[in-house]
Specification:
With about 375 residues, the chain is an alpha/beta fold. Among the domains are: about 120-160; about 165-370, Alpha/beta knot (3-Layer(aba) Sandwich), CATH 3.40.1280. The protein has 14 helices and six strands. The longest helix is centred in the first third of the chain and has 44 residues, at about 75-120. This is tRNA (guanine(9)-N(1))-methyltransferase.
C-alpha cells in the first residue's frame, strides 16, 4: 500500500508523507489529521488518497451506504394469495365494465322505444304522453324528497334517543388497502341500512384518520352523513362514559340477551380477522371495558366461524331493535351458506325475506350515491 501511495515522488516528499502517516496513526479522531494536512499544499494529494481509502472502509463497515439488497421473494402462500387477489380484481373490473355496458345499452334501447312511440302517434297524443311522463317524474322526485325528510327526522331523533353503536376503525394499520376498501364499502352499507330503518341507531365512527379517513372522505356525500365522526379512538372520545362501553366480540364469555339504551356497543372494524384472532377481546381487556357476544349459538349452529362482517352485525342489531327477536334477526341477516340445512327447516318464510334483502344489497351503492348529499 505504501509503495502505491508514494510511487513517483521525491525522497524529501516521501519523508514528509511518512512523517504525516505516523502522525495520523497517533492522532484521533482521524478527521482532525485530514483537516491539518489539507492546509499543507504538499500534502493535499495524500489527503485525497487517504479520504478515498477511508470512504472504502466506511462502505464495508456501514452496509447502509452500500447498494440496497434485492427484495426477498414471496412465500408460496403469499404468492397464491396475491394471484387470487389479482384474479378477483380482474373479475371485478370485468363485471363492472360489463354492467356499465349493459346499462348504457338498456338506456339506449328505452330512448329509441320512446322516440318511436312518439313518432307513431298524432300530435295531440304526443303532447299528452310527454306531459304524463313529466308528471310521473315530478311525482317520483317529490316522493324521494319526502323520504329524505323522513330519514332526516329519524336520524335526528336517533342522535338524541337512539341506541349508540360505535364502529372501531383503529385497525387500519393491520389491513391491506383492498381490505380497507372492503371495510369502507361495509360502512357505506351500514349507513344506508340505518337510514332506512324505522328506528335507526346513533352511529359513531371512531379512528377516522390516515388511509381509513382518506377512503371514507372519497365516499359521495360523506361530509354530510348524519353520524358522529371522530379522528380519535372511542376510549378517548367517550372517556366520560367508559363504564357504559361494551365491546361486542365472539371471544367473550358474556352473552348479550338484551340491548340497553344506556350502554354503548362497540363493533371492531377489521377485515380478515383470521390473521388477528382474539384481537378485539384483548383490546377490551387491556382497556378495562365490558365485553359481550351475540347469542348466535342459542338459536342456530354456524357452519363456519361465528365471525361476521361489520354490516351483518349492524343489521342484526337493527333487526333486533325492530323485532325484539334474536332468532328472526339472525335468520334474516346471516347468509344461508353459513347455516346448516337443519337450522333452516320450518323457516322458509324468513329465508325468503333474507334472500330479498341480499338482492337489495346489490343496489346499496347506487342508492347511497343517488341520495342527495346535502340531506345526509
Amino acid at each position: 500500500m505504501a509503495t502505491f501511495i508514494y510511487q513517483g515522488i521525491s525522497p524529501q516528499e516521501k519523508r514528509e508523507k511518512i512523517t504525516a502517516t505516523s502522525f495520523h496513526k497517533t492522532l484521533k479522531p482521524k478527521n482532525s489529521l485530514l483537516r491539518v494536512l489539507s492546509n499543507t499544499p504538499s500534502h493535499r494529494g495524500l489527503v485525497r488518497t487517504m479520504e478515498d481509502m477511508q470512504n472504502d472502509q466506511n462502505a464495508v463497515v456501514n452496509p447502509s451506504n452500500a447498494l440496497p439488497s434485492p427484495p426477498q421473494a414471496l412465500s408460496k402462500s403469499a404468492q397464491k394469495k396475491l394471484v387470487k387477489q389479482q384474479r378477483f380484481e380482474a373479475r371485478k373490473a370485468e363485471k363492472k365494465a360489463q354492467e356499465k355496458h349493459q346499462k348504457r345499452e338498456e338506456g339506449e334501447r328505452k330512448r329509441k322505444e320512446w322516440e318511436e312511440k312518439l313518432a307513431s302517434v298524432p300530435e295531440e297524443e304526443r303532447s299528452r304522453l310527454i306531459e304524463s311522463r313529466r308528471s310521473l317524474r315530478k311525482e317520483r322526485m317529490e316522493k324521494r324528497s319526502e323520504e329524505r325528510e323522513r330519514k332526516i327526522e329519524r336520524l335526528t331523533r336517533a342522535r338524541e334517543l337512539g341506541q349508540k353503536i360505535v364502529l372501531d376503525l383503529d385497525f387500519a394499520h393491520l389491513m391491506t388497502p383492498s381490505e380497507i376498501h372492503s371495510l369502507v364499502q361495509q360502512i357505506m352499507y351500514c349507513y344506508a341500512v340505518n337510514g332506512r330503518c324505522t328506528s335507526p341507531c346513533h352511529l359513531w365512527l371512531t379512528g377516522c384518520e390516515g388511509e381509513m379517513g382518506s377512503q371514507l372522505q372519497r365516499l359521495p356525500g360523506f361530509d354530510k352523513w348524519m353520524v358522529e365522526k371522530e379522528s380519535q379512538s372511542y376510549i378517548e372520545a367517550l372517556q366520560d362514559q367508559k363504564e357504559n362501553l361494551v365491546y361486542l366480540t365472539a371471544d367473550s364469555e358474556t352473552v348479550l340477551e338484551e340491548l340497553d339504551l344506556k350502554k354503548i356497543y362497540i363493533i371492531g372494524g377489521l377485515v380478515d380477522r383470521n390473521r388477528w384472532k382474539g384481537i378485539t377481546m384483548k383490546k377490551a381487556q387491556e382497556q378495562g371495558i365490558q365485553t359481550a357476544k351475540l347469542p348466535i349459538g342459542n338459536y342456530l349452529k354456524m357452519s363456519s366461524s361465528q365471525v361476521l362482517t361489520v354490516n351483518q352485525v349492524i343489521e342484526i342489531l337493527l333487526k333486533f331493535m325492530e323485532t325484539k327477536d334474536w332468532k328472526v334477526s339472525f335468520f334474516q341477516v346471516i347468509p344461508q351458506r353459513k347455516r346448516p340445512e337443519a337450522d333452516s327447516e320450518g323457516y322458509q318464510k324468513v329465508e325468503g325475506e333474507e334472500n330479498e334483502e341480499q338482492d337489495d344489497q346489490l343496489d346499496t351503492k347506487k342508492k347511497c350515491i343517488e341520495e342527495d348529499p346535502s340531506h345526509g
